[in-house]
Amino acid sequence: MEKRHGVVISKTGLIIGLLSLSLVAITGNAQAAIQCYDCHGDRTTGILKPKDSYSDMGASNLRNSTTGAFLGDHETHLGAAPTANDCVKCHNNQNYTTGHAALGNFKIQVNPALNNFSTSLGRARYGKPIFFNQTSVPQTASCSNVNCHFVSKPTDQWGTRPYATADATTCSKCHDAIPTSNAHTKHITYLGGTTGACSRCHNNYPAAIKPFQHATSAGRRPISVTFSTYSGSYSGGNTLFFPGQTGRVVGSCSNVYCHSNGRKIYTSPQWSSTNTAGCTFCHPNLSATHLKHVATIATATYGNTANNTTDAAYDFGCGNCHPINPANHINGYIELTLNNTHGGPLKSKNNVAVDNAGYKQNVGVSVTCSAAYCHSTGFTANLTFVTSPDWYGTYTGDRCAMCHGNSPNSDSVNRPGSPAHNAHAVGIHYDDIYNGVSGKYGYYSSATKPSAHGDPNQATIISCDICHSNTVATDPAGKNANDKNSICVTCHSAKSRVPTIKRAAHVNGSVDVIFAAVNVRSKAQIRDASFSSYSAVWARTTYKVDSGSYDTAKKSLNQATFTIGASAGQGTCATVSCHNGYTVKWNDTVNCNSCHSRL
């Protein structure tokens, strides 16, 4: 015989029959103690956990006489083969006897503080009295302050149907599905901004057979960090990670590819660190050539195609040479791309529209670009892309001629310039000025001798800075010189001054015409009898007497205007003293009448 909840029964049950109005009792075989599953679970399988029905099932959420299911979520809270010890977490005493229902006055008992699930933040409890009646129409409640539901939020009411999928909505039932603590925001944003980012550093719980099983150990172990794509480790954290807890210690990553320079040199960021911005945190030993291209490399952002260059230093966003998609950043490769479809003020002007073209790369040994706007002539009417110096090499040639050629160079095969440059370079009629006696003026030899070119006190030297003053700085002495062109090299040696580049305007995606603030001087004087026709523009000292004879523009050149044309080379200059105030188009074919009314 056995006692079940205070009632004695046999193993085979009690057979009662009426025969000829007589009660005959037939007893069975051997007897055994009742087990938990006899009342709470499934006697056939021997599993003791109750079967569940749910609050959205209407009347059927009452005790199901066929399956034995009743309102609750025991099946999702207990493992596949639980023992009585598992019940203790929520129902206290593990020494339940077969008569505990009657001894407990047929009340359900819940722990006053749910064992192993309370923190200093408050008592973990179920939202009903410690003892409450069993009823035919159960009234359930929620748990609060329980570690397994991440403390911060009350749970759904007991008997709510289990979550079907581990998506952002269900994950947020316990903790923020997109956490913002410590470095979460930076990492999740970088990895796509969805819950899919979580599995890069944590177990892929949504893909697990039981996605929420991990909650059962919350608060009794540090946060579990495991890397799904690359090797590495995380260590050093403690268990005080619930919202509002103090004394939390976060760990650090070690030997993780995500925080390497891509070539097996690793950094070890602490999870709470705020000092991880920019490229240098993970790439502290970038080549010196990087610093020539990216001045703010310490705070640069991957994929950025902006141009933040100042006059002092070039500062191109990483996306000008590397992919713009963050997914390409930490993928096991050092990738270059000059693809002009990526956009950006400079990258959009490159000469290729695919990723794997326009450069040659031998990682760590040699890299050259041949389709980058940054290394082009800049002459939009006939834009020529040149091969850059080797990334790992040292360039010793003429840095201007490397991209632009040596002006005047309209006939250059490799780096052709605008034909109009030839007409402007050096000075006004510098090679054909009558000396007033017989012959032509020569070039500078002495400050006391008249010269057609070479002495800015007699005739303004026209170099890049005169029309592109916002790009090339004017020499303090007014002597910007070219020592490489075949015409100029006869007089100018390699000791000439290297012009200062104003980098902000030098490589900005456009050709900037900004006239210099100079009152142009000209040795090409019209005879006195005709000068009255030009006196509104020019002032004269003397006429062809000595070095002090020249005309000076009455207005500074920067008061003139340049208007960009509808297409390359169609711009016009207006009120320019060099053209005696006449409006002239850049690529026009000119003659004497284009600028002169009298000679």
Automatic annotation (TrEMBL):
Top-rank taxon: Bacteria
Molecular function (Gene Ontology), one example: oxidoreductase activity
Signal peptide: 1-32
Protein name: Putative CxxxxCH...CXXCH cytochrome family protein
One Pfam family this sequence matches: GSu_C4xC__C2xCH
Keywords, in A-Z order: Signal
PANTHER family (alphabetical): DISSIMILATORY SULFITE REDUCTASE SIRA, SURFACE LOCALIZED DECAHEME CYTOCHROME C LIPOPROTEIN
